[in-house]
Automatic annotation (TrEMBL):
Family matches, as PANTHER family: METALLOPROTEASE (PTHR11851), PROCESSING PROTEASE (PTHR11851:SF224)
Protein name per the record: Insulinase family protein
GO function terms (MF aspect): metal ion binding
Peptidase M16 N-terminal domain residues: 40-150
Domain Peptidase M16 C-terminal: 182-355
Length: 426
């Protein structure tokens, strides 16, 4: 019998394992990745296309194209599509990211057949109705206007545009004037060029049958190649302004962004650098949080993160503080970075962060859908299937001396970019 007066013994997590996926290449060169799990009668189906910001001729087209897919097809209006999805208690979304566009369906297994037919209709027969297109642009422009009143939004935009350049696809934010000038023929042209199943990665995860797989192949494995996709442009970070301050006289808070370029996920140093970032500002017990939140009381939260993309990674620190504490906060940020370069991390702190990372990864793999997301990450970034096992091994084996070397190799303050939005101190 379980003794509830005693806490369970601690167990060390020595490894994590993703479920194996069966991969099939269809006649149209798209690939289907199958991860079967019948624990619950549910499944997730996702089509991932090379149709993100990286491939758009100018900012806003990829976003509008993704959203217009659900605005009407040859058989259904936008309202009818929404009603069908609601009737089956399912979820269907079309979302654009920096690199890809994903069409994602969550459903009970028993409803997969009619909903996959609907998804096929949405992907292959969108009508791009003019009225819905104009309304979408109006809503999007209104949302941008609201976001531009927020310092955090402006700081992200300023930081990424100064680092990458204003026309780089990884620069955040959209321009209302440019967005308003986008025409429906441009959206259709982007759709016909980049919604190309010959380069699609298709994922199905959960409780599915062999008949379901045959249905997927019949709908998405033999058709849907509009034309050969145009090669994506080559972009390089421009590095326009190292330190920038956008004045907002009516603001009592400043939004701060500080960061630099970061190695790709397949770089030998990536795993151990992830631990170094956690120590600096990657979790609630980080050094930045203890210093600037707990000790100084300047902010409710400060974090450092790695913005991972397929073509370039970016490390940055972000926080919001009272405008009078802006410079002192920047000083403390650089102080913490320099401490990692000048002093060895204590063993107790290292062990705490190691346990946190390993435990969080295990928690992030708690459901089959979580596991499929990690697997998808491996596929889209062209990583080895052992990526997460290698991650655990690297985290558990890193030494304070290695972290010190990495800090001196990658935390080069002269290469840091700094963006602040707020009220200057008189």
């Amino acid at each position: 019998m379980l003794n509830r007066t005693e806490a369970p013994a601690l167990k060390e997590i020595s490894a994590v394992q993703l479920p194996s996926a069966e991969v099939t290449t269809f006649p149209n060169k798209s690939r289907l990745h199958r991860i079967f799990n019948s624990t619950q009668p549910i499944l997730k189906f996702e089509i991932v296309l090379k149709a993100g910001k990286w491939y758009e001729p100018y900012n806003g087209i990829a976003y509008l194209a993704a959203k217009m897919l659900l605005e009407g097809t040859q058989q259904y209006s936008a309202r009818q599509i929404a009603d069908i999805i609601a009737f089956y208690g399912a979820s269907l979304e079309s979302n654009q990211s920096f690199d890809r566009t994903s069409i994602t369906l969550y459903t009970l297994t028993k409803h997969f057949d009619p909903l996959i037919e609907l998804l096929g209709e949405i992907l292959f027969a969108p009508t791009f109705p003019e009225k819905e297109f104009e309304l979408l642009k109006i809503r999007t422009i209104q949302n941008i206007s609201v976001e531009k009143k927020k310092n955090a939004y402006l700081a992200n935009q300023l930081f990424t545009r100064n680092f990458y350049g204003p026309n780089h696809p990884y620069a955040t934010g959209m321009d209302e004037v440019i967005l308003n000038q986008i025409t429906l023929p441009e959206i259709k042209d982007f759709y016909h060029t980049h919604y190309n199943l010959s380069e699609a990665e298709i994922f199905i995860c959960g409780d599915f049958s062999s008949e379901d797989i045959l249905k997927v192949e019949s709908l998405f494995g033999k058709a849907g190649v509009h034309q050969e996709s145009m090669a994506s442009k080559e972009y390089k970070p421009l590095g326009i302004i190292k330190k920038d301050f956008l004045v907002k006289e009516d603001s009592l808070q400043s939004s701060i962004r500080v960061g630099s370029a970061w190695p790709a996920m397949n770089h030998p140093d990536y795993h151990k650098l992830a631990l170094l970032n956690k120590i600096l500002g990657g979790y609630f017990g980080s050094r930045l949080m203890k210093n600037i939140r707990e000790d100084k009381g300047f902010t409710y939260g400060i974090y450092s993160t790695i913005s991972v993309k397929e073509h370039h990674n970016l490390f940055f620190i972000a926080t919001d503080v009272n405008y009078q504490n802006t410079q002192q906060t920047l000083d403390e940020i650089y102080r913490e970075v320099n401490l990692l370069k000048s002093e060895l991390v204590e063993t107790s702190e290292l062990q705490t962060v190691q346990n946190y990372i390993v435990g969080k990864l295990a928690n992030d793999l708690s459901t089959i859908f979580d596991q499929s997301e990690k697997y998808k990450n491996i596929i889209l970034h062209q990583l080895p299937l052992t990526f997460y096992s290698n991650y655990i091994n690297a985290i558990k084996s890193v030494t304070p001396e290695e972290l010190n070397l990495l800090a001196n190799r990658y935390y080069i303050l002269d290469s840091f970019y700094e963006a602040v939005v707020g009220k200057p101190v008189d």
